[in-house]
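[Automated response] Your request has been received and processed.

Submitted sequence:
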Amino acid sequence: MIFSTCRTWLRRLGLDEAGIAGVELALATPMLALLMTGGFDFGRAIYEQHRLAAAAQAGVQYATALSANLANTSGIVAAARADANDTASALTVTTNQCTCPGGTPQCSTAATCTGSTVSGTYVKVAVSESLSTLINYPFLSSPMTISGVAMMRVQ
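Generated structure:
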């Protein structure tokens, strides 16, 4: 009698599906958390790159607003920092000018200001920042450098 009762109880326990959803949730939660964290890191990196590109564009706009602003590198840097809301001075902002002579495919007077086939004077602003990820990924170095660059023809 006790043996048949135990057998019936074990058979019901084996066929019972109560708690299966909890086990599946416990198995799937770590993978979902890892995917969500990776998506958050990727989205944050894209947001930061967009923010830095907009800051570089603001620096170029300041430089080209008035001809006197071209030589005002501290004003260009301040405009880029203000656009990026950089209160902790975590950004690295560099600015330079170059002149491309006619027919030269790159600005040969300053090696860092390249990329135009049209002769003229250009101003270039580069903004970069260090970004740490939430997880140390094996294929990424953390912290990584995110940057934004803007270049505009002045004359």
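Summary generated for your ticket: The beta strands are 92-100, 120-131, 144-153. The CA atoms of residues 57 and 100 lie 21 Å apart.
If you did not submit this request, please reply to this message.
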